[in-house]
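Lecture 7, part B: from sequences to assemblies.

Below are the input chains for today's worked example.
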Amino acid sequence: MPRRIHLPLKTEAASPLKAGDEVLLNGYVYTARDQAHVRFVKAICGKKTPAMIKGQTIYYAGPTPASPGRAIGSCGPTTSSRMDPFTPRLLKAGLKGMIGKGSRSRDVKLAIKKYKAVYFITIAGAGAYLSKRITESKPVLYKDLGAEAVYRLKLKDFPAIVGIDSKGKEI
Amino acid sequence: MRKISAKEISSAVSALSMDANFTLRKDILEALKKAYSSERPGKAKKVLGILVENAAIAKCSKTAICQDTGMAEVFIDIGQQAAVTGGGLAEAVNEGIRRGYGKGYLRKSVVSDPLLRKNTGDNSPAVIHTRIVPGGRIKITVMPKGFGSENKTLIKMFNPTQGAGDIERFIVEAVRKAGADACPPYIIGVGIGGTIDKACILAKEALLRPLGRRNAKTHIARLERESKKRVNALKIGPMGFGGKATCLGVNIEEYPTHIAGLPVCVSISCHATRSATKTI
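Predicted structure of the full complex, as structure tokens:
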């Protein structure tokens, strides 16, 4: 049976997780993809770290718009490795969790271990299925980016697998 | 001369962009179901089951199969006896894309300039490929191409003395490099011959051919079968969980080429390879 994990991720909840563990994520996450990462790093360098980094979890995703009566449209993960050049900087700034698809660079793995974070992978290309496990969505930052804006999402039993655990071990 | 109004083309493109994004192609759904049945119990099988369920949810609730509803590639065969009236063809297609992506709540993923990167806000423009064919009809295919897989495309100019074995290794190499990033099980489209731009378009056309229908040329059909076997021997599998299904099929299209060259394009496409066609 997959373990229920509450977000934001606490260190005591993160440390027992092992690569390959199936989990159900519950709580708030923030979406961020390529351009948001560029802006995050600029903000961090300018000593203005956005609130959605420290202790939080980022979901690499850009959802389709919600049709009337729905919380969100299709919302699966995008390729995580495109965010690799920015991730160590975000982890240093306190990022605790990431959700995406695919493998990560060596530098990211080392930084995950150093800052005791967790990288989750979720079902790639099953955006309609995953949309049923998101109960709230709201654009909160960089709205000018359209599909690439930062959304705050509330996850309910959102299925994922530990891709890289806090010891830096990969699935 | 048979007249076809620009309006009718816009309506068709609008409907096709929604249809392609909501309803998984029958051949691909069947292949996913088959992959599910033949997989051993475990994580890979579980993911295949979810992908089949995802397709059902998408169709029934008119939610996009995948949030990456793509940059729209539109293939148009224009009968030489047909005339488009009441507006330009490209503008009619782009109007259809704007309308379909708006009405269908599909993601607007197109930026107006590759370096300045400002979102156009309506997913236009499409990438349009036209062909003049005999007859008086217009056949339109909309293929929303996701970029998780588009980013994994490989092209290579082989020496003309190289052959099927080298191309087969190149196909396997492309998939190995893509790993689990581009949403396996993949559909692999390969274009061989022509010039490099022709090879790229052939690779995309190959993605449009239903899975299970082999190239009419025996030696190309053999290359399709052998490549599929070798790609599946990589055992990347759904989400990288291994198993039998790294690809659902390899489709190859070829074209005459120059004595000095052998252009090849390998286009990787995800398990949500989408397209829809209408003939007016």
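Note for the exam: Residues 38 and 244 of chain B are 8 Å apart (CA to CA). Keep this in mind when comparing with the next example.
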